[in-house]
Amino acid sequence: MNIALVGINARYIHTNLAIRYLYHSLRLDDLNAQIKEYTINQYEEEILKDLYLEQPDVIAFSCYIWNIEIIHRLGRQLKKILPETVIISGGPEVSFDTEEIMKNQDYIDIVIRGEAEESFAQLIEILARDEDYHACQGISFRAKGQIFSNPGNSYSLPLDELSFPYLGEIFNRNKIYYYESTRGCPYQCSYCLSSTIKGVRYASLEKVKRELQIFLDKKVKMVKFVDRTFNCCKSHALEIMQYLLEHHNGITIFHFEITAELLDEEMLSFFRKVPKGVFQFEAGIQSTNPETLKTIRRNIPFVRLYEPLHKVMKMDNIHLHLDLIAGLPYEDYYTFRHSFNQVYSLGGDQLQLGFLKLLKGSELRERREEFGYVFDDKAPYEVLENKWINYGDLLRLKEIAHLLERYMNEHRFRRSLSYLIAEHYTENPFGFYEDFSEFWRNREYDRFAQSRDQLYRILLEYFEEKKFKDRNFFVNRLRLDYVIENKQRKILPELETFTTDEKRMFFSKEEAHEFLKEIQNRILYVPHYKDESTKKIMKNVEFLILEFPLADLESTAKPFKVNSSICVALIDVGYKNAFEIKQLKEAD
User: Fold this and answer.
1) Helices of type H across 425-469
2) Domains of the chain
3) Are the C-beta atoms of residues 127 and 30 closer than 8 Å to each other?
4) Contact 572, 543 (CB under 8 A)
5) What are the two backbone dihedrals, phi and then psi, of residue 397, each rounded to the nearest 5 degrees?
6) Exposure b/e, 72-86, CB count within 10 A at least 16 = b
7) Radius of gyration of the CA atoms of the chain, in A
8) Sign of CA dihedral 380, 386, 391, 395
């Protein structure tokens, strides 16, 4: 029997965990099962061709909000050209209104509801022996033109009975590998499907350590834990993180979804010992509006989240990703502005402004009429408006989300953005993004994709249109951002603040070469290059002449200036560091 386990991922770097679990759940020896991964950005004709040429007896689709529409289109075509192939669907997108889906999508022969490992293995054995489906728990199936549903969901196995999903994998160091040490969540958030699973199940620590060591040995770039609340059991979380810290390979980053209210002093004390580049955290705050939090069953005051997250940020060794959701009950445009400003004040490395999706099976979807929700009836079921916020306001927030992604989350404007907001939008970063998005729209920059270089030009245009003072001071920050964050060895003409006949933008090659020949300069500024040739070092560093002392430019707030000092900054492009090495002259 030929079986194609199909995962259609959002991006190439992603991996599908579910189909790998299903692959390793199979027990028959005479099966030819294959994992087939694609992306939503591929031509559907390519996917259709690839699956057809496999001539599978069974196709099993892993269904989520980001791929269900593509799967429906592919499934209908596949049923036409492979009419004898049994098409099985599973995953959250088909586990709730299963019979209605099967009525509307007649290409689907069988649906597995809930966790599928055991039911899928049983189902394949039943198909191989041509037996009756009724013995398989948690499935719906089509027979003689009718749809039948066996009671309950599929059987949930203890996690220790599941094989490591990447057994036999040829690892790609540039991909993200997903992993779980728990299933379920202790919280009951009304917008989330995890609320439909009662309790939390844990894999044994011995199993988790053994499997994580495989990632470490293979030196993959990133492992993302899909545990809904990784730190819900402190002892479990701490022992895993301690193991990862003790065995870290200097390459792999481990990503965890955490809740800040459970970060006590013991955990914070442990985090302080973690080197940079080992862990990154994602904390879903979603809103700071008390009435909203109560309604969505996340009734945790923001003040209880702020202190531990602020402490993590001050450590500056763990990347922190924060989440907000627009479109929640009792959150209008103006209360969302307040939520945004409070969360932005934490200074996270990334702030994700998401938009509510009314997921199948979620409480908010069940209460949609009560809250006046209007939403797209196609996946991902994004909210268009509700009683508190209209479509126009959500569009404005989408414009802000776009600029937040390009300017804050891509980390290319650290110095210029922090100065601009601190100096001109004190305690109201939302006001900056709101104002900037209006400027962006008025200039019609939203009509075309903008290059990285153009983003710098646009921000400078905005600064100039607002007639903010101290242009040169701001431009020097932009120059630093451009050279350091983009690993550039050139400068945009718009960012030149000096006249070419008076001062140089960069050290000459001869001056730079002489400086780097001195061993004491290497040890002081670029110790990681001290044993390299001067020629090789020159490929990794740049010398940038600045109109203000580097210490002033690197500070978050605008310094008090009597006069400016022209200085030379050594930019270590590879490591994104900058050092002031020489003052050239005093400005008038």
Assistant:
1) 429-442, 452-465
2) 2-149 (3.40.50.280), 170-412 (3.20.20.70), 471-586 (no CATH)
3) no
4) no
5) -65, -30
6) bebbebbbeebeebb
7) 28
8) negative
pLDDT at 168: 93
Which stretches within 247-373 are classed as H helix? 265-271, 290-295, 302-315, 333-344, 363-366
Q: Do residues 254 and 208 touch, judged by C-beta distance below 8 A? A: no
User: What separation in angstroms does the CA of 491 have from each of 105, 276, 487?
Assistant: 56, 29, 11
Nearest to 539 by CA among 581, 496, 487: 487
Q: How far apart are CA 460 and CA 471, in angstroms?
A: 9
Q: Please provide residue 413's backbone torsions phi and psi, each rounded to the nearest 5 degrees.
A: -135, 35
Q: What 3-state class would DSSP assign to 559?
A: coil
DSSP 575: T
Separation of alpha carbons 145 and 41, rounded Å: 35
- Contact yes or no for 87/108 (Cβ under 8 A): yes
pTM of the model: 0.91
For residue 88, what are the β-bridge partners? 60, 110
The residue type found at 248 is: H
What is the reported pLDDT for 557?
A: 54
- Cα–Cα distance measured from residue 396 to residue 437, given in angstroms and rounded to the nearest whole number: 8
The strand order across the sheet containing 176-179 reads 176-179, 222-225, 253-258, 279-286, 319-326, 350-355
Q: Which amino acid is at 394?
A: L
Residue segments in the chain with a per-residue pLDDT below the cut of 70: 195, 488-489, 497-506, 556-564, 583-588
Q: Which residue has the tokens 């969360």?
A: 343
* Strands 374-375 and 350-355, sheet pairing: unpaired
* CA separation for the pair 554, 492 (Å, rounded): 20
Using one digit for the tens of pLDDT, what is the confidence trace for 491-521?
787 887 654 444 455 577 888 888 898 899 8
Burial class (CB in 10 A: 0-12, 13-18, 19+), 125: middle
Cis upstream peptide for 380 (omega within 30°): yes
CA distance 427 to 423: 10
| pLDDT score, position 564 | 65
Classify strands 279-286 and 319-326 as parallel, antiparallel or unpaired. Answer: parallel
Q: Which amino acid is at 360?
A: K
